[in-house]
Amino acid sequence: MTESIGTTCVQGGWRPGDGEPRQVPIYQNTTWKYDTSEHMGRLFDLEESGYFYTRLANPTNDAVAAKIAALEGGTAAMLTSSGQAANFFAVFNIAGAGDHVVASSAIYGGTYNLLAHTMGRMGLECTFVDPHCTDEELAAAFRPNTKCVFGETIANPALSVLDIERFAAAAHAHGVPLIVDNTFPTPVLCRPIEWGADIVT
Question: What is the pLDDT of residues 152-185, one digit of tens each?
């Protein structure tokens, strides 16, 4: 049976086992204890899963990330301290100095500045296209070094709605992922992955 979005909002990300608390515990510690430095070394080297410093991860944050992934219909999620940090990570883990990004011009102003100026200073180029451009204009924005396409479900503050399927088709035709900022509608009203997006912030 498929779970309703309301049930996922309440119960997603935490499925207690027998004798475990109904609600996810809040872990307030900053560090974890291990018996050997070798074990800590394996955690630091990402050779095995576990917790060692809350700034990186803890069980409470992991439960929230799992809930968000479930709500969005994704396979995994990570938390960041801000929306701009999320957008930066989403883009900069795919594209870096010498690379190119295609983005809708109708996006949050802070994200526009992040792509046009901040990341531009880091050597990443961005071509902005009108979200209502023709298919030919959208295709013409791509370059051989294009690494991803970025858009916003409902642009802040213009409230322009992105045609996610069309932008996904263009991105996938060029072999790159579509990243969609889904802040305004949240997954309760729109799940961009169901319309072709690959990454949601």
Answer: 999 998 899 999 999 999 999 999 999 999 999 9
Number of CB atoms found within 10 A of residue 33's CB: 7
Q: For the chain, where do the domains classified as CATH 3.40.640.10 start and end?
A: 83-200
- DSSP class of residue 131 equals T
Q: Please report the DSSP string for 34-83 in residue order.
A: -S-HHHHHHHHTTSS---SBTTT--HHHHHHHHHHHHHHT-S-----SSH
Q: Phi and psi dihedrals of 98, rounded to 5? A: 90, -5
What is the CATH architecture assignment of 83-200?
A: 3-Layer(aba) Sandwich (3.40)
Does residue 94 come out as left (phi exceeding 0), alpha (psi in the -120 to 50 range) or beta? alpha
